[in-house]
Design a protein that fits this description.
This is DUF2252 domain-containing protein. By secondary structure, the chain is an alpha+beta fold. The protein contains 17 helices and twelve strands. The protein has two domains: about 280 residues, no CATH class; about 160 residues, no CATH class.
Length: about 450
Amino acid sequence: MPGSTAIKGATATGRAARKVVPRRTLAEWDPARRACSALEILFSQHAERVPDLLPIRYGRMSTSPWTYLRGAAAVMAADLDLSPNTGLTVQLCGDAHVLNYGLWASPERNLLFDLRDFDETLPGPFEWDVKRLAASLVVCAQENALPDNTADAAVTAAVASYQAHMRSYARMSELDVWYDRIDASTPLASLAPRDRKEVRAWVAEQAEDRTSAGAFRKMTEIRDGRRRIIEKPPFRVHLDRPEHRDEAEIARQVFETYSSSVPEQLIHLFDRFTLSDVVRQVVGVGSVGMRVFLLLAEGRSGEAPLFLQVKQAGASVYEAHLEPSAQTNHGHRVVLGQHLMQSATDLFTGWTRLDGLDFYVRQFRDMKVIPDGRQITPYLTEFAGACAHALAKAHARTGDPAAIAAYIGKGSAFAHGIGEFAQAYASQTRADHADLVAAIAASKVETAPGW
């Protein structure tokens, strides 16, 4: 049987990768291998970012080792490249930390659990995403003063979930893997009944509120006879001043030109919306400094506001360590990675290029339910398992699940290696964060209030 032959070949490939990277060596971390400091890597990212936003970036990253980790994907990419990799290639999320998972609305308006951030996506070795998820679990647990054994349990749950689901995907057909979805009930299934009821009620409330209509109610006002987005300086500001006119024009042109990258039938829908207002946003941690705009468009009916978020896309931080992107537009790279990894993606997602800058566009708050670190703390172990399930699904869609499953195996070697690495890299993150705080104290890095 051709299928049986292919699976045997994939299994052989996975087992052969154990000789390239023995699973016990996944635990290794040696900062002495670094060719440059973490701060030097962060400083190298300044060129493509808006200078007046950099102090906010460092203000956010300096808050704690947790916020530092979230902003230091480039540092971890360089660190992961210091050791041999398995060569078992998938579409990397690139920033698979624990808060980059959440609930999204499918085009049919069903809530699905999936990865949610693809700025750094690129083909690469599967274990790099697993390592970033595992390290983030330890740092998140430490941030919230959880015991060491809770952090260990969360990492163990994540690896076990990834391992089990990858074995399951290895037995499924290609179409079954591609059609698989994780609905909103799946992350809640392992909770106690009382907790499940409480979290389900919170999810339902958030999903109803976090829509374009909800944002329209909370984030807009009538000013000078027109609908305007409410400012929240310096994190959300209008671009009316002379120094911002170029940015305002870029945002408007993105709205007018990016529709060529979305399904053709949507152009008829776009024609019914008119751009009403534009603001510049500061979002996340790692994205701070990149150009991000929030656009409000209003439908002819007056009943259908549409918020779109425009984000500048630069090269993935992994491109310095892997093959360059096959997409010449980095907005296209991000959108393609999202379509490859997610089971269902926002219909309005697209990309364009203006003035030599790449951008991608997506709906803002399209029923997105994203918990913060404090909210997941009581359920960290259960949430870790759900995140790893979503990551395994994404990797199975874009890689060879039989080869990955064969490399991981059924024993504890893979889990042991990932667990030890997670603890070691969490310690490194604390040290790197301390270096940033020291540089700020020595006036080598300028900061501004981050939140």
